[in-house]
Design goal:
This protein has 15 helices and 22 strands. It has 472 residues and is α/β, with parallel strands linked by helices. The protein folds into 3 domains: 53 residues, MurE/MurF, N-terminal domain (Udp-n-acetylmuramoylalanyl-d-glutamate--2,6- Diaminopimelate Ligase, Chain: A, domain 1), CATH 3.40.1390.10; 236 residues, 3-Layer(aba) Sandwich (UDP-N-acetylmuramoyl-L-alanine:D-glutamate ligase); 158 residues, Mur ligase, C-terminal domain (Protein-Tyrosine Phosphatase, Chain A, Alpha-Beta Complex), CATH 3.90.190.20. The strands form 4 sheets. Strands 7-6-5-8-4-9-10-11-12-13-14 form an 11-stranded mixed sheet, with helices on both faces. α8 links the parallel β10 and β11. α2 packs parallel to α4, α3 packs across α9 and α9 packs across α10.
Amino acid sequence: MTYDSRQASPGVAFVAIPGAHRDGHLFVSKALEAGSPLAVVEREVPGAPRERLVLVEDSRTALAQVAAALNRHPSLELPVIGVTGTDGKTSTTTMLHAALSATMGKVGSLTTVDFRVGGAVEPNLSRQTTLESPEIQAHLRGMVDQSCLAAILESTSHGLALHRLDQIRFAGAVYTNITHEHLDFHKTWEAYFEAKASLLDKTVRAGGFAVLNRDDPLAYERLRARASCRLLTYSARGDVGADLWADHPRPDEQGLAFTAMTPAGAGLVRLRMAGRWNIGNALAALAAGLLLDQPLEGLIAGLGELPSIPGRMEAVDLGQPFSVVVDYAHTPAALGLALYELRASTPGRLWVVFGSAGERDVEKRSEMGRIAAQLADQLVVTTEDPRGEDEEAIIAEICRGAREAGAVEGENLHRTADRAMAIAMAIEGAVPGDAVLLAGKGHERSIIGPAGLTAWDERSQAEAAIRRRLDG
């Protein structure tokens, strides 16, 4: 079974799914000519023999059903935990993988950054966080066959709305936050929320558990009202009304430290990463581990062994007298958190290099400009993933928001569509005591433009600019 007509062949059924840019129904005849015995479709296809068409109401739903069946429903053989939210999904998923690895043994995970089975790590080069259902089910089957005892899936609103996570029995649903993102696809925040909440609904139906963020003002109460299941709540702000909360959070020599107050007792957590929001992510991972009946001490030990996550507050240090940090922050909330974090630890000026994606939520562009102008001293607005849009027009929208918040072009607001030049501009302008945040690309290895993918490595670009500065 395939949804890619290029893979159609004898013995391989073709499922025609509507895509963002191309409709699979346009390729049904091609797939049948290539030897596919049948095609699963939502409507009749002119010229295609009707006896080789299987008509369904929703081909994506059918795709998930067939994918699960062909892989023998792997989620029935191991607990699967879904992690969703606007920000922090990858970090929380990776933390939970580390925590459970310390207490359960071999576990698997699928994230924006990588695919993990035990200690084996494979980079995710697809630019998709939640893969299509055939790939997800195949990965889960591989985890079962390799004796994994649990699986953690980073679960996006797109993946949930497009039925990619159908036919998975979820043992748990973990929520980070629900803020402002992907309105280009969902159209309204309400629809976005409902897509996220559907993970909880799936979990409740399967008799699983939920982990909710008490610090999330937009979604917490609504999610809690529909969480008729085993439940733990957490608070990074130290809200003692939460089941898990952080006491005395502080930076330490390796990253962050805090005392986790939990229903299973208290424990000192040391994280080898920056970003105080990671305290919330760690608490969410601990809560999920406790709901899986794992010992607190072992979970905490696993968190302490996890190194920094690629592209998440990743320091680039070649001995320069100012700090450079690469972070995936590409939403208003995430950008604000990253800047707020660096603002508190930066004695000099705070620089930020950022953009906003094309063919995505346009409302967040000016908001990101406003947030950057309020929290940073120097802004360099550049390209991110323009796709088919005019990158200069996107930059102009961001700059409009920055100017509304008081930024002045030519003084503390700069623009260039060349991202390498933008990075160089900030690094060349930084002086001892400054900090430079490179936001939006993180771990990604490409920039998507009108002509497709162009290879990109944010860390390598930063290192090259730093070397030129040091050699200068």
